[in-house]
Amino acid sequence: MSSPALPGRLRxxxxxxxxxxxxQRIAVGLxxxxxxxxLLAPVIAPYDPDLPDLFNALGPASPTHWLGGDAVGRDxxxxxxxxxxxxxxxxxxxxxxxxxxxxTLAILAAWCGGKVDAxxxxxxxxxxxxxxxxxxxxxxxxLGPGLPAVVLGLTVAYTPFVARVLRSAALRExxxxxxxxxxxxxxxxxxxxxxxxxxxxxxxxVAQAVSAFGFAVIDQAAVSFLGLGVQxxxxxxxxxxxxxxxxxxxxxxxxxxxxxxxxxVVVAAGNVLGDRLGEEGR
Amino acid sequence: MKSLLxxxxxxxVVLLVASFLVYGMLxxxxxxxxxxxxxxxxxxxxxxxxxxxxxxxxxxxxxxxYHWLSGALTGNLGSSLVYKQSVASLIGARTTTTLTLVxxxxxxxxxxxxxxxxxGALRGGRTDAAISLASSVFLATPAFLVxxxxxxxxxxxxxxxxxxxxxxxxxxxxYHLTLPALTLALxxxxxxxxxxxxxxxxxxxxxxxxxxxxRGLAExxxxxxxxxxxxxxxxxxxxxxxxxxxxxxxxxxxxxFGLDGIGSLFVRAILQRDMAVVQAVVLVLVAAFVLVNLVxxxxxxxxDPRMAP
Lengths: 282, 309
Known about the structure:
A: 10 helices; disordered N terminus; B: 0% strand
């Protein structure tokens, strides 16, 4: 995967290498635009996303309402823009938390070996026995519907995937001579893990996180679609596909289509970047 | 044989731990098991006493877990607070719909995915590019969106298929389940096509394939005997994982198409906080997931005797 770093020197991950081909530049561009839309929602959304307007109920696309109106006449474009917040924030939290927990477990297991490794690995085996969406649904059953429960459930569900890949990589890295050299020089285990193992694993960690992002977006949107995630009237893309199904059957497909296509675009962009970074990291 | 036994023992341990966690869910809820079991319902004193008795709430935790587990192993999964029925019969009545859906989707996934991947790898050029693009698109599209598009276009607008329900009788049932199965199959099939394409291409470049060609074997025979046979191992792995995941995926698809299967029972039970049903369905889903994975592992030994358990 990567060449051993000199002891005491941080090797920066070559992230900009992911931007070489046009497909990756488009993917990054799309993600940046959507993230900006999510952040700037109060500024750029043309209408209040929760304000019903009966004259616009199931309204077609028009110069005043670019994507028409939903069943109660709320502006679909404004809801799409505001919906980017919940739809993207949840998966982002899932990825950050599961990467942090999974990475820590992986390095701990690889460094300590023996019993710690055995316990961590068997624990991961048990977690692997539950499909990720079932984890999210069970957490919702215990804590009640809403974004926090879904994020918590998906974090637990994604941790074993992160941990398994990183554990074997950390194990390989740990057995390289430079780690033994640092150990002989009297560096502490924590210092070696934090200053050498972690930086050397970073490209792989980033690749993993980016590829998992798309799956997290799909899973979270699916839970919202089932009515168990983000609750109405909050705008959310998964919920909009659900409520848009009725409108689509009554001849106004824009709500379901715009929200659904945006989910697909985010996932596709994540996949393009993740594949590429995965190749780089290897 | 010995490692097969070890494998089975490991599987039993995983299931045991999973069942312990599923049972322990009761104690994670704010308010404890009583609030959890009553859910949204404010119970009468008699109901509360009945629940205390039914769940042995006055016994120590491990004794209660033992009672629940031994009940579950003999098919007694408790009774639903909402439906006032045994959970086993609720699940039993819905297995046909869910299993037919999963089997139908699995057939579509294997036929479509393996064919598309193999054709892409063998033909190359534009065919390959088109198949790769299509699989990337379907891979990025969530199942519920595919379902919504199919319902609106083929059931609502064109009227070729029924919108809701599972039908009765085999032919009618398959007709009703065509769109749901397609929904479940597209994303997973796309993934399988990708894996198939990659492993067939990897095999095509191997030396033993060159050798077979230079020995003058017919191309069809080279592909069947030397390429596909060797490419089958990663394909089987992914197929198995995919099929194991279909049960979980059917939760979403059943919801889109209003099918009364185990998945929609699960979603309704969560919304109604009918916890006996939630626990039982999770247990069934996990057991099925683990069992399918075991079957896949056993399949390896047929494909490649070196990997015999």
